[in-house]
Amino acid sequence: AQIDALDIVVLALLLVGSVAYFTKGTYWGVPKDPYASSYANGSAAKAGKTRNILEKMDESGKNCVVFYGSQTGTAEDYASRLAKEGSSRFGLKTMVADLEDYDYENLDEFPEDKIAFFVLATYGEGEPTDNAVEFYEFINGESPTFSKGEEEKPLGNLKYVTFGLGNNTYEHYNSMVRRVDAALRKLGADRIGAAGEGDDGAGTMEEDFLAWKEPMWEALTEKMGLEEREAVYEPVFSVEEKPELSADDDTVYLGEPNKNHLEGKQKGPYNAHNPYIAPIAESKELFTVKDRNCLHMEIDVSGSNITYTTGDHVAIWPTNAGVEVDRFIRVLGLEENRHRVINVKPIEVTAKVPFPTPTTYDAVVRYHMEICGPVSRQFVSTLAAFAPNEKAKAEMTKLGTDADYFKSKISSQYLNIAQVLHSVCPDQPWSAVPFSCLIEGINKIQPRYYSISSSSYVQPKKISITAVVESIRIPGATHIVKGVTTNYLLALKQKQHGEPHPDPHGLTYAITGPRNKYDGIHVPVHVRHSNFKLPSDSAKPIIMVGPGTGVAPFRGFVQERAEQAKRGEKVGPTILFYGCRRRDEDWLYKDEWDSFKASLGENLTIFNAFSRESPGKKVYVQHLMKQNAKLINDLLTKKSNFYVCGDAAHMAREVSDMLAEIIADERGVDLKKGEEVVKNMRSSGAYQEDVW
Ligand code: FAD
User: Fold this and answer.
1) Taking a C-beta distance cutoff of 8 angstroms, is the pair 690, 553 a contact?
2) Same fold, 27-224 and 542-691
3) Quick one: pLDDT at residue 173?
4) Which of 108, 208, 645, 647 is an active site residue?
5) Which residues, in sequence order, are CB contacts of 592 under 8 Å at separation 6+?
């Protein structure tokens, strides 16, 4: 493949000794490495960092940048896939860019012969993802100031492509991509192809993406005069085994998230790039039934500078289950080499390795890859080329091209990647799959968020969580889908209590972590601050609706108000609508509510909906809201805040609809007006949601 002089200069500077890689001609970048700041070696790497995207594209010889706004990693993954495809199918010189890494004043100088993609997730109430806030505010601002100054259509030269990731169960479906698209067009930019939208709510994200991208590529090839060629797999990373190093060497990462952790001196700030290894002070089971689990855990952050306020989220960094790590390693033919030390390097300059190296295959699979997650049809297509035999190749190709077949065989069965490969070819390992291809095609493991169920006023250094353990039986399938994080937490709780491991599926975990650094029951965490907040004036009434684990933040809210009452502060009416199946099975914190009541007296009212206690009649929180319509309306007229937490797919919308209905009925106005009142409450912050 051809390379240009500029590439050589830059690469030579940054990757001395890697000359062999240059000839491979891959011009694809992966997302910003979250660990880079902690292990990038010295100022050379930092000095090379520019916030000027045009300069970056020029110096690395790119003509296509794929920006992403991502919260949970899906948008980031789609961005990487688009960049990869643009390079291998159309010869574009692509790079992926985290929106927060660049400034946008010079977008008006974006060259006509280059292209920008925007892959944008919408978060929460139609908000940008954390990494997209600044870009969003800039582009959507009254009149963004560009470097060339006043022009009516400052972005007249910019050609762009957009895809949004949203969830139709939220009111502001895909609003991020819609608003950015509208803003760009208003500024004169020229969108190529349709503005794509994927719907997680309908479960069609992947198919929406696949259906959108083909006509988009067609439009793009026409506009930019590109020629499609046969896509040949080109590795993005070089994976070099290092026989001279042993997994015991103290320079080898065995799952440590960054250099500080490797050196055994973790230090803050703790954030999405740097977890705190926190002791679990206490753990217990909240359900009283045998086949379902809900965990209460107290995470001790007193050894760190971590702070939180009531209503925040804590992120738990999971470890994959041993049985899944073993399956993956076995199916991919890595068994003998699993503890070999490997050095993973980007083949070209904008690519970043999504974990620190040198490391081992085992550590990468166990701590860094989302090996249990859903499999994409596109990835199955890519892997067809590396099938162990022709039959398996044909089957992979069919799965990759036939959406219905793929659905019936794979997605409806919730198979993970190793299960897919094993089912397609049970008797031979998939040893020909390049490890780079796995790093590219499998998402980086994501920390999972939990609504903190304690009050920072009461226990500022102890964070409670309330987590229901995911265990899904798929009709017709032989296996049970086990949630990655919650089953890991369950194992930690069992270890803490010296309980025998009762899991019939043989889930075991490397519970003491890399080099036993998590021993003594520790878990890596960080805190994410949220806007889900109690009113600053405790005398204000509040209404909370939180069935199931949706009660988590409200335990924190009530704990806080009970303490305020105890300390003689004035506390307003505090109303909770809670729901579960049966009072003797899954009533969360059943005994605690009485003690809160002792402090709050008649200021605390709890309405419990037990959905499975009356045969033939399921009672849910919405029903109890309806029964208490007058009380709700009265409190709203007294400036009560209204909070909803829990299931986003159904409950949150039904509660919102019910509130509109209550307002309409009680105030004698039509439903449309009721809906408008709820809408206004949302925008003023009087109606807050914490849903997932
Ligand atoms: P995962 O492994 O992530 O699996 C989750 C689901 O993904 C599965 O149930 C299944 O439906 C699907 N899935 C997994 N693998 C596949 C596959 N191969 N194919 C197809 N589908 C698959 N949860 C709580 O219990 N309490 C809380 O307080 C809480 N608060 C939250 C707050 C926020 C802001 C958010 C975003 C989420 C919150 N959650 C809470 C949910 C929590 O973050 C996790 O999503 C949940 O615990 C499941 O995590 P897991 O790793 O155990 O399951």
Assistant:
1) yes
2) yes
3) 93
4) 645
5) 555
| Residue 206 CA, ligand 1 centroid: distance in Å | 18
pLDDT of 162 reads 98
Give the model's pLDDT for residue 45.
Answer: 37
Q: Is the dihedral of CA 155, 166, 677, 576 positive or negative?
A: negative
C-alpha 578 to ligand 1 mean position (Å): 21
Supply the pLDDT for residue 15.
Answer: 39
Burial-class residue 273 by CB neighbours within 10 Å (0-12, 13-18, 19+). Answer: middle
List all residues whose CB is within 6 A of at least one atom of ligand 1: 313, 318, 372-374, 414, 416, 448-451, 466-468, 470, 472, 481, 483-486, 549, 552, 692
> Is 451 designated active site?
yes
User: How many residues are recorded in the chain?
Assistant: 692
Residue ranges, the chain, pLDDT below 50: 1-47
Query: Distance of CA 195 to CAs 184, 202, 209, 358, Å?
Result: 12, 18, 11, 41
In tens, the pLDDT along 495-528 reads 999 988 766 667 889 999 999 999 999 999 999 9
Ligand 1, atom nearest to 469 Cα: 52
Residue with tokens 């043989």: 506
Burial class for 209, CB neighbours closer than 10 Å (0-12, 13-18, 19+): buried
* Every domain of the chain and the residues it spans: 27-224, 237-241+320-441, 294-318+447-528, 542-691
pLDDT of residue 570: 98
- Which of the listed CATH numbers 3.40.50.300, 1.10.3980.10, 2.40.50.140, 1.20.990.10 matches domain 237-241+320-441? 1.20.990.10
The alpha carbons of the chain give a radius of gyration, in whole angstroms, of: 26
| The two structure tokens encoding residue 372 | 């249990």
Instruction: Note the pLDDT tens digit of each residue in 376-405.
Output: 999 999 999 999 999 999 999 999 999 999
pLDDT for 36: 34
